[in-house]
Amino acid sequence: MHPVEALEFLWSGQDGLFELARKNGAHFQRHLYTKEEALLSLAGNDCFGPLARASYGSKEENVAEVGNVLWADIDEPDGLEERLARVPVPPSLLIFSGNKGFWAYWRLTRPISSDEIEVWKRGLAYRLDADRGACDKTQLARRPGSYRKETGKVAEVVEFSGAVYEPDLLAFLRERRSRRFPWTKARWPLLTGH
After folding, report:
1. Each residue of 22-40: pLDDT tens digit?
2. Which of 3, 55, 126, 155 is 20 to 30 A from 21 via CA?
3. In sequence order, what are the residues at sequence separation of 6 or more whose Cβ sits closer than 8 angstroms to the Cβ of residue 38?
4. What pTM did the predictor assign?
């Protein structure tokens, strides 16, 4: 899947400005674009904001009031299939980070509040043993197609189902305790090459 198609899918149904960023030393140079401009400006940008922005800035109040995507930053790939099976539906999109981890995304059929997205992302991080420090709605994610100088690898889409889920299927993420779901090999084909 081409990086433009991946971002078109994730940003579909969201209104506002769309953030791209490039790492400059210890900081990010962040830029906001219309959706069309952002899709034409991917080159040289390492990261993107999965949620649309309502205004310029990188604070919570700058994020759109609603969004339709959940995501988790899975830094440690060991047991990835079993961990992803802790959520009753597979990710819509799974991206290899170009380092050792993955970014998993679940697209929703309709928007929910961005505050609720933040809560649900914490539930995802808890259930997946993902990066719990990456749950802010302002969080930038590794852009598919971006090159990682430190590893010499490119972030790439490794699975794309295109599934879009009713929020009710994932509303359990509000719960604090982890729910485990049965894992089967048929449901999660082995990821290879990473």
Report:
1. 988 888 899 999 999 999 9
2. 126
3. 7, 11, 18, 19, 20, 48
4. 0.88
Q: What pLDDT is recorded for position 117?
A: 95
Dmax (CA) of the chain = 44
Assign residue 83 a region: left if phi > 0, alpha if psi is -120 to 50, beta otherwise?
A: alpha
> Which domains, ranges and CATH numbers included, belong to the chain?
3-174 (3.30.70.1790)
Rounded to whole angstroms, how far apart are CA atoms 124 and 73?
A: 10
Other Cβ atoms closer than 10 A to 49: 26
Going by C-alpha positions, the residue among 157, 66, 78 that lies closest to residue 110 is 66
Q: How many CB atoms lie within 10 A of CB 136?
A: 15
pLDDT for 24 equals: 82
How high is the pLDDT of residue 94? Answer: 97
* pLDDT at site 61: 94
Structure-block tokens of residue 113: 């509040």
| Cβ(71)–Cβ(125) below 8 Å | no
Spatial distance between the Cα atoms of 22 and 84, rounded to a whole number of angstroms: 29
| CB-based contacts of 4-8 (< 8 A; 24+ apart in sequence) | 4/39, 4/42, 6/93, 6/95, 6/144, 6/157, 6/160, 7/38, 7/39, 7/42, 7/48, 7/143, 7/144, 8/39
